[in-house]
Structures are given as C-alpha cells and as structure tokens.
Write a structure and sequence with these properties.
Number of domains: 2
Strand content: 5-15%
Shape: elongated
Order of helices and strands: EEHHHHHHEHHHEEEEHEHH
Helix content: 40-55%
Distance between the termini: 44 Å
Structural class: alpha+beta
Length: 280
C-alpha cells in the first residue's frame, strides 16, 4: 500500500518536437490539445489491427477519450511524462503483451515509423496506465476508504476475537468450499495465491498481518480455522473511477473545426458525456 503524497510520478514534461505538427491546422482540440487528420488516420489503423473498422468520427471520439485522460493526468494531477518514460513503456508493452500478433499488426501499420508509433499507440497506453495507477493507489484520492481501512484494521488487531458480523463492511469467505463448488474465488484470489504460505501459517482466528489492497478496495481478513480456508473481516470499496474522472473533465471544452465532422460526431455521441463537452 502506498502512503505517499498525492503524486508519485513527477518527472519533467516532455514536449519538444515529439508531438509537434507545426504549420498544420488541427481537426479538433480538447482543452487546447490539438488533434490532426493524421491522428485520426493512425487511430483507424490501430483499430484495424485489432480487427475493427472505424469511421473518422468514431476514431475521433476515441481520440477525445485519450485526450481527456491526458488532460486529467497532466493538468489536474500535474503528473508529467518525458521521452524516456515513453521509451520504457514501449519496452514494457513488448515484454508484457498478451497479444503479440495484434501488436505486430499495429507495428506493421506504422511501417517502422517509430515517432508515429510512440505518439499514437505507446503514449496513450502510458497515459491511461499512469492515470488509473494514480487513481486507484494514491491515498489522497482514496483518502476516505484508506483511513477507514486503517481504523478497521486497528480495531481488529486490538480485539482479535471481536464479533463483527453486524458491521456493514463485514465479509465472510470459505475459499475451500468455493473451490470445491467451482464458484470461483472473488476479489481475494490474487492475494491468496501470492501469500498462501503466510495464510496457512496463521493461528486460529489469526489476523492477516497487513491491509490487503487492490484496485477494487481494501481488505482486512482474519483466518477463522487453522486447518481450513475460512476467513472473515472487512471489505472497504474504493471510489468509482468513472465518477471521479467525469468530475475532473466537466469544465473541459472540445472544439471541432470542421462543420460536417462536428455534425457527425454530435450525432454519434448523442447522450454521452462527450457530447456535453463539445462547443456547439
């Protein structure tokens, strides 16, 4: 669990020539961040590599989503990205991809144009990853749930035999029974697999020695039976990403400079949160 301040990624902003398109008139802007016709073309190329055929307006809507995430990361959270971070992200994608054939098709589309590949594909992936990483694991953003989890953990540590069944955050799990009934293990599976040796060594009614955290929330668990996989404890859910994200972009203005494109985008985005941001 991170106990750091609001920002844990803080590096100089990489601007320079990497994303420049001097002399070209943008198709649209998201809070001043320009989108060019080449960006739409490249987004369509990327989606085609995934097996989807997007129209220009559909590709532009995807780009709006990317730029809105960029806006929140860079302007709301003041988290900045430099060239070497993008290079490292490229290496991470190569190393960790679960779909190498699709990645190869994406790379083939860019035909060894590294600059365009980094800008159109790698950079948006990095922005999304950093944004979600910050939201889910920053204890300032998740302050309410984080502080409550510490309070619950302290109470259970001081009173290990406390009856907590009537608590609104109470959870009860019989992992062995769930495994036998093939119901699948819910949120606790990753921690259980990772720390099963620790859990097996816990005495009866033994409290797991730390708060367990993932993207969903905070877990305080105690083992109820030394010879089984029965646990109870608390689960404190984290804030909703979508609500937080929409709150942070509500004042953004999206400009579309081509009237025909604007009409097509407004028709396609009707009723969505993006429609509300477009200057009519």
């Amino acid at each position: 669990m991170r106990h750091n301040n609001k920002l844990f990624w803080s590096v100089p902003l990489f601007v320079g020539l990497f994303f420049s398109a001097c002399g070209k008139r943008p198709i649209a802007k998201v809070d001043g961040i320009p989108i060019y016709s080449e960006d739409i073309k490249d987004e369509k190329g990327i989606q085609h590599a995934y097996g989807a055929n997007y129209t220009d307006e559909e590709a532009l809507l995807l780009l709006f989503q990317q730029k809105l995430r960029e806006y929140v990361l860079l302007k709301k959270l003041s988290i900045k990205i430099r060239e070497k971070d993008i290079e490292k992200e490229k290496e991470r994608i190569d190393r960790e991809t679960k779909a190498p054939e699709i990645l190869n098709r994406v790379k083939a589309y860019f035909n060894k144009d590294k600059k365009r590949y980094l800008k159109a594909f790698v950079y948006p992936v990095l922005v999304s990853r950093l944004l979600e990483q910050t939201f889910y694991f920053d204890t300032t953003i998740q302050k309410k749930g984080y502080m409550l989890s510490r309070k619950k953990f302290k109470a259970l540590k001081e009173h290990p035999n406390m009856d907590i069944k009537n608590d609104s955050f109470y959870i009860s799990l019989d992992l062995e029974k769930m495994e036998k009934e093939n119901k699948g293990i819910p949120f606790v599976l990753p921690f259980y697999q990772m720390d099963s040796a620790v859990l097996r060594s816990l005495p009866q009614k033994g409290l797991y020695p730390e708060i367990i955290e993932d993207r969903a929330g905070y877990y305080i668990l105690r083992k109820l039976d030394k010879k089984s996989k029965k646990f109870d404890g608390f689960f404190i859910r984290k804030r909703s990403f979508n609500k937080w994200f929409h709150d942070n972009i509500k004042d953004v203005k999206i400009e579309i400079f081509d009237k025909e494109m604007k009409n097509r985008v407004l028709s396609r985005a009707k009723g969505s949160y993006i429609e509300k941001l477009i200057i009519k």
